[in-house]
Design a protein that fits this description.
The protein is mainly α and about 120 residues long. It has one domain. The protein is about 80% helix and about 0% strand. The protein is built from six helices and no strands. The longest helix has 27 residues. The chain is globular, with a radius of gyration of 17 Å.
Length: about 120
């Protein structure tokens, strides 16, 4: 049971990190220079963006949760189970970021779910 809970935390944290970092970076804007002073100013905007900071928090949560679950579960189970992040990330892209998701991508998400189910059966 604890493995399932931590895998759920991993999936949600990784998806939240992807969605929040994307949202934050779109708010900050495109990197269009390699001049050190302008990159420094850009970096200041990035680290002061609330979505970026929240995304970074979820990155840390994901990382340490992943380390914890690997200490007691097999990678051959954990890795496929955490691929549900593609499902959650797609929902986040659609409903939080407002991206259009094609029918083919939804079919792909269904296939990922089926693959996770197959690898989880023991």
């Amino acid at each position: 049971m604890k493995t399932a809970i931590v895998i759920a935390i991993i999936v949600l944290a990784d998806s939240a990190h992807d969605v929040l970092l994307t949202k934050g970076m779109k708010q900050v804007g495109e990197v269009s220079t390699i001049k050190p002073r302008e990159l420094f100013l850009y970096a200041r905007k990035v680290v002061s963006n609330k979505n970026f900071l929240a995304g970074f928090f979820f990155t840390v949560l994901y990382f340490f949760s992943f380390l914890a679950v690997l200490s007691w579960a097999d990678l051959s189970f954990v890795f496929p189970a955490t691929s549900l992040v593609y499902v959650a990330g797609t929902f986040g892209a659609r409903f939080v970021l407002g991206e259009k998701v094609s029918f083919q991508r939804w079919v792909g998400i269904l296939l990922v779910c089926m693959g996770v189910a197959m690898t989880s059966l023991q």
